[in-house]
Specification:
The structure holds two protein chains of two kinds.
Chain A lengths: L5 E5 L3 H12 L3 E6 L2 H10 L3 E4 L5 H6 L7 E4 L4 H14 L4 E5 L14 E3 L1 H14 L3 E3 L8 E6 L20 E3 L20 E6 L4 H9 L1
Parallel strand pairs in A: 1-2, 1-4, 2-3, 4-5, 5-6
Antiparallel strand pairs in A: 7-8, 8-10, 9-10
Chain B lengths: L14 H12 L2 H14 L3 H25 L6 H8 L2 H36 L20 H22 L5 H24 L1 H4 L16 H8 L19 H39 L3 H9 L2 E3 L3 E2 H33 L18 H14 L4 H29 L14 H24 L1 H26 L19
Helix pairs in contact in B: 1-7, 1-10, 2-5, 2-9, 2-10, 3-9, 3-10, 3-14, 3-15, 4-5, 4-14, 5-6, 5-12, 5-13, 5-14, 5-16, 6-12, 6-13, 7-10, 7-12, 9-15, 10-11, 11-12, 12-13, 14-15, 14-16, 15-16
Classes of the chains: A alpha/beta, B mainly alpha.
Chain lengths: ~220, ~475
């Protein structure tokens, strides 16, 4: 019913912290459970979430984080077993809550029998790293809903659109240049497709080849 | 605030800006509009009234500071209460706070009108404003529709402005506030130096026949003058290092405002006298200024005009602040599903909480038809009630979430929130009793608003209980984060 989610994140370390930041940026209400005094201070400095200091497997602490009103709890500590325990405890306290557990090995996929979703940050990171290692000129980014592809495309020398401003290029309907070169800004009509620059592009599959032709030649 | 603004990675507002937002919202209507009315009720003790109100509100200020430091949301009081209370209680809080801001808007507009007329009068553009002001039922009817019209237009203009464009930045607010305070400093300086003040008469302190008890209803009426520091907690996300700066800004703005108020009221009572202030009503400060400011100056001709301009400027900027504040409360409630979802949506073209602003405008425009005193009493009453809930929220959070990280912890807990609740309850009780005796209209309207809230709450729950009803959710725009 509401447009913002009430989210609890157990573990405010590297993964939990980044996740909380993204969610808070999207306007959701985030509460973080974190035991380490130093990490708590860091989070408070960033001003993105209410912090409960304590052990996230302790039911009393989970309750203090407001589990009875939460839509989702994501256990993102480095310990798979601990994450699982947090999710199970949370489900016990608030049966309707969506649970997400961080895992640290592929075998953890089996845990979806107990939790609603698992995340494997190392593998997600590895995918990005592999992309970078290959350094390919066209990369598909994250899994997007539906059939749309969000891609990172390097404009090739001598391609039809190379060196042109977006106003001068007629991309087919169903394609959208999202970012400027190297992805710091959203593309404007005066964005220039610099050869060698990489652009975030959204395309419908049936025009993807046409877009590739324009940008890669 | 739940998603109403993008959280900017670089905070833009410093401690000074945050303090000025609080002061800018406080210094405006309360002091310019209500000093005359307070003098009418309490005589020269109006000075005490403002001092005591500052003390009363300081306890709630502590609560706001603790909540704002530990709950990183830019929603102000409603967001904090939403954090810990169930649906009904947080709905009531939002509903009351929303009303309080709207009525405050009406009050500021009502204060703007006579001061604006006074400004025109100083330059001889209109005949002198009605001698009796809003104190007695005006004998001359002609002045009233004009003032009403002015107030109406002021609300309309600022609503339109905020409906189609996003709010001015905090730095503009800082400039406005400095202008306001400077004008008041000039007022105090000239007032203290004027021969009228040397013969100041603060005796008898209390009006005859009322005694010291007259202070209480006057406190109730002018309580709204200290509303505004809470607006600091609606912009927390834009403030740098908020967990340190927000509490500091709250206290700094409160202390500075109390000092300014006391100086201004002392000078006003000392020069014009309590009776003169009472006669001038909403334009009390302006009238005091015209009595002692030097005349024959280049350009502005009459020094008093500067102060009157200050009053006009202050009421308008404070009105602007509550137009934004009221719409933000309604917007937050819409986001949280406590009002119809359209309240929590941003207009596709203007980028403003359009529905929230327009609906707030309806009540504001209606409230300018009220007598100034009724508007002041109602706004004060609802702020008192909502501040009680804020204090209770602190106590509940401490008890139910002892492990919550609190970057700022108030000293001497639990005394401050308990004292805050007690004092606010006393003032609210006195105010209600006073309304029963003198202003049944305000009381009826207040009760009607609460009842309307009950109906709205039940209706909304009924709607939500029928998922087959076609209610569109506000969609947050989700763009996948791209990491390179």
């Amino acid at each position: 019913m509401t447009s913002t989610l009430d989210i609890i994140i157990a573990g405010g370390g590297r993964v939990g912290f980044q996740t909380a930041e993204i969610l808070a940026d999207l306007g959701h209400d985030v509460t973080i459970i974190e035991q380490d005094e130093r990490v708590v201070t860091d989070i408070a400095d960033e001003w993105m979430a209410t912090v409960i200091q304590g052990d996230s497997t302790n039911p009393d602490i989970i309750e203090q984080a407001g589990i009875d009103q939460a839509d989702t709890i994501a256990a993102l500590t480095g310990e798979t077993g601990l994450n699982l325990a947090v999710c199970l405890a949370a489900s016990e306290l608030h049966p309707g809550v969506r649970t997400v557990a961080r895992i640290d090995r592929a075998a953890g996929e089996a845990y979806t029998r107990f939790v609603d979703a698992v995340v494997f940050p190392e593998r997600a990171g590895a995918r990005v790293a592999a992309n970078e290692v290959v350094g390919s000129d066209v990369q598909t980014l994250a899994d997007v809903t539906g059939t749309l592809d969000i891609m990172l495309v390097r404009v090739a020398e001598g391609a039809p659109a190379a060196g042109k401003q977006l106003t001068d290029v007629r991309f087919p309907a169903g394609a959208l240049i999202v970012s400027d070169e190297d992805g710091h800004r959203i593309a404007r009509s005066d964005t220039t497709l610099t050869p060698g620059g990489r652009y975030v592009v959204a395309v419908e599959p049936n025009v993807a080849d046409e877009v590739m032709n324009l940008m890669r030649g | 605030m739940s998603g109403s603004q993008t959280r900017s990675p670089e905070a833009e507002l410093g401690l000074l800006d945050a303090t000025m937002i609080g002061m800018g919202a406080m210094i405006g209507a309360g002091i310019f509009v209500l000093t005359g009315l307070a003098a009418e009720i309490a005589g020269p003790a109006a000075i005490l009234v403002f001092a005591l109100n500052g003390i009363v509100t300081a306890f709630t200020g502590l609560s706001y500071a603790e909540l704002a430091a530990s709950i990183p949301k830019s929603g102000g009081g409603y967001a904090f209460v939403r954090e810990i209370f169930d649906d009904l209680s947080s709905f009531i809080m939002g509903w009351m706070l929303w009303f309080a801001y709207m009525i405050a808007g009406g009050l500021y507009a009502l204060g703007f009108a006579p001061n604006f007329l006074e400004l025109l009068h100083v330059y001889g553009l209109v005949p002198p404003p009605d001698e009796v002001g809003a104190v007695v039922v005006p004998v001359v009817d002609a002045g009233v529709p004009l003032a009403f019209l002015l107030a109406f237009v002021a609300v309309l203009g600022l609503v339109a402005l905020n409906a189609v464009s996003t709010a001015a930045s905090g730095s503009a607010e800082t400039v406005f506030t400095i202008v306001k305070v400077s004008i008041l400093v000039v007022f105090v300086g000239f007032g203290l130096a004027s021969p009228m003040f040397s013969g100041a008469e603060f005796q008898p302190l209390f009006p005859e026949g009322a005694g010291a008890t007259a202070i209480l209803p006057a406190m109730g009426l002018t309580f709204i003058a200290f509303e505004g520091y809470d607006l600091i907690t609606t912009v927390t996300e834009e403030v740098e290092n908020p967990r340190e700066n927000i509490p500091k800004a709250i206290f700094a703005s409160l202390i500075a405002t109390v000092i300014v108020y006391l100086a201004v009221v002392t000078v006003a009572v000392g020069t014009l006298g309590a009776d003169g202030l009472a006669d001038a009503g909403e334009a009390g400060i302006a009238a005091a200024a015209t009595s002692f400011m030097p005349t024959g100056l280049p350009i502005i001709q009459n020094g008093g005009a500067l102060i009157v301009f200050g009053a006009v400027f202050s009421t308008l900027t404070a009105l602007n602040a509550v137009v934004i504040a009221s719409s933000r409360v309604a917007f937050s409630m819409g986001r949280e599903g406590q009002l119809v979802p359209s309240f929590g949506q941003i207009h596709h073209r203007y980028g403003t909480p359009f529905v929230a602003i327009l609906s707030s405008a309806v009540v504001m425009l209606g409230s300018v038809a009220l007598p100034t005193q009724s508007a002041g009493n109602m706004a004060s009453l609802f702020f008192l009630l909502s501040f009680i809930i804020v204090n209770v929220a602190v106590i509940r959070l401490r008890r139910e979430r002892p492990n919550m990280n609190r970057p700022y912890e108030m000293p001497f807990y639990p005394a401050p929130p308990l004292i805050g609740v007690a004092l606010n309850l006393i003032l609210a009780g006195v105010l209600v009793e006073y309304l029963i005796r003198t202003d049944p209209l305000a009381l009826v309207l207040s009760v009607a608003w609460i009842l309307l809230g009950g109906v709205a709450y039940l209706a909304l729950n009924r709607v939500r209980a029928q998922p087959d009803r076609d209610l569109t959710d506000a969609d947050t725009e989700i763009t996948p984060e791209v990491e390179d």
